[in-house]
Structure formats: C-alpha cells, structure tokens
Design brief:
The chain has five helices and eight strands. By secondary structure, it is an alpha+beta fold.
C-alpha cells in the first residue's frame, strides 16, 4: 500500500482544438492533510515548538495583518506555491501546485517543496480548471487549521495555518485569474504602468507618472479580476 493515496478531482480542461468547449477530466491530487500526516508521522519531519512561537511573536511585533490568525501562537505555518516548467524541447510546460512549511529548512531546498498536483499548462482554462482543485485544497487546509492533526512524536494534536501563497507573476496571474498578466501591455495589478505608452513602466524618475495611477481596492476588484 502506498504511503499516500491520490484523490481524483473532476474538473474542466481545454479541448483538443481551440474552438472546442472545455472537456471533463479527473486530475490526481494529494490532499494537504494527507501530506502533513505522512511528513510528520511517517517521514519524521520535526519542527521545534520554540521556532513556532517565535514566528508568531515576530509577526505580531511587526503588526503583520494575519498575525492574529493563530490566537495561541502555536499553529505550524504552511505555504502554497505554484510554478511552471518546460518539460520538452518543443517548449511544452507543466504547472504544479506545491505545499511547503516555512519553518522546515532541510539542507537542500528541493526537499522542502511537496507536490499536491500537476497538469499540462496548456490545458488550464482559468478557474474552470483550477477552481475544483482549489476547493479541495482549501477544505483540507481549513481542516488542518480548525481540527489539527495528531502528531505521534508530540503525543497530541497540532494545528496548522496557511501564511503564504507563493509564486512568480505568471503563477499569480493564473492562480487568481487576473486580467493583467505578464503578457499584457498593462501588466501590473497595482497601477496602470504600460509597456508601450504612458505611463511607461520604465519611468524610474523620482516622481514617475505611473505612481499617480495606483489602484485602490475598489479599482483592483473592478479592473483586475475576471
């Protein structure tokens, strides 16, 4: 029996031809709760309690908005990370969603990223594809936050809290279904900086024109999200 059992999530992916409607497809997914259980109870991952408390104490001292997410300062921090990579000479790409733990610091960084799911990048149809996957991931991470998980080495339940959503601009554009993307002329989600016209993104003067176009939360919601 494998240490982890994949969940199959029904979602929509791009059809074989551009003019085709999205088609149904089941995507394999490792749930965060399963992965955390395996890492702590089978693989022997250890995080020091003092490090956890210092992490939350520092967040509160710096007035970080989400510092109050752990009322007792004992939730183990978790992070989600997305990225794409080429896997063929033709330039085909695959996109992966990973989980990591900010306080887990192995000697090699490659041992600190744990794959939840992956699929060909060209198959992704925005939230039609990612939405069902996100829902499963969110439900699982919410369970870790509210109910926790029994850790054998601790002899008790430990709760976890998602504190980071990490990735490059390409990933964030895909993950949040932004209208501005890395390919757009107006690519920034915070202002109207433009690649071809004013306000030009290459204006590095003391008072650049794009600074006057910074978006409020209302403008962000109206102009940046689909």
């Amino acid at each position: 029996k494998p240490p982890l059992e994949m969940q199959w999530v029904s979602t929509k992916v791009k059809g074989k031809l551009a003019e085709h409607e999205p088609v149904d497809r089941d995507i394999p997914l490792f749930l965060p709760e399963q992965l955390v259980d395996f890492l702590f109870n089978d693989a022997g991952v250890h995080i020091d309690e003092d490090d956890v408390q210092q992490y939350w104490a520092h967040a509160r001292a710096q007035s970080i908005p989400w510092a109050s997410a752990s009322d007792d300062g004992q939730h183990y921090p978790l992070a989600l990370y997305g990225d794409s990579a080429k896997f063929s000479a033709a330039g085909d790409k695959i996109t992966g969603i990973f989980m990591s733990m900010p306080l887990f610091d192995p000697r090699s960084a490659r041992f600190s990223r744990f794959l939840l799911c992956a699929l060909e990048s060209h198959c992704i149809v925005g939230m039609q594809t990612l939405g069902p996957l996100y829902q499963k991931i969110v439900d699982s991470m919410w369970k870790l936050y509210t109910e926790g998980l029994f850790i054998k080495a601790k002899g008790r339940k430990v709760k976890f809290c998602t504190v980071e959503i990490r990735g490059d601009w390409e990933w964030h554009s895909v993950a949040f279904d932004f209208i501005p993307t890395w390919r757009s002329d107006q690519f920034c989600w915070r202002c109207e900086a433009d690649k071809k016209k004013d306000p030009n993104f290459l204006d590095f003067s003391e008072n650049p024109a794009w600074k006057l176009t910074e978006r409020s939360n209302t403008k962000f919601l109206a102009n940046c999200l689909r």
